[in-house]
Structures are given as C-alpha cells and as structure tokens.
Design a protein that fits this description.
The chain is α+β, with helices and mostly antiparallel strands. The protein has 2 helices and 2 strands, in the order ααββ. A two-stranded antiparallel sheet has the order 1-2.
Length: 85
Amino acid sequence: MQPHANAVRLSHTANEGPESARDLNIQATRGDYISCLDSDEPYRLLKLGFQSALLDVLQHIGMVYTEFSGFSGAGFSDESHLHRY
C-alpha cells in the first residue's frame, strides 16, 4: 500500500455491520468518485479506470455500474452473461 499512501486511506471502527462501515467511509472520502468493494469481491483489471474515464467524459452521467461475474476460489468461472454495449 505504500506507493499509494496518499491516495488510499484505511479506516478502523467497531463492528457495526457492512452498512455502517460503508457509510463511515463514504463520509470520509476526499475524491471525486466512490467505489464500494466488499472483502469477498474481486475487481477486474482496469475496471475503475474505465468507469472513471466514462464519468469524466460524459459529465451528465451520475453513476456507472457493472454486471456481475460469478467466481470461485480459482478465479472467474462464469463470464457468459457479460455483454458489450
């Protein structure tokens, strides 16, 4: 995490559930965008870069999201439902 120390902040709080932790971190954000990631979810390579570039170019868009991908401990296991639009 050291190379990204100025961009990433780590928060600690009493265990009050995922919603409470998410709300705390949304309130503490300093950036232009928020992306929520639970501990059991992986991010696809370049996902955030594509999404933030889209928001930068199409400023009338307020939110982007992606379809889900099924995965196992060995990695992504179901991508047949992913589409390009």
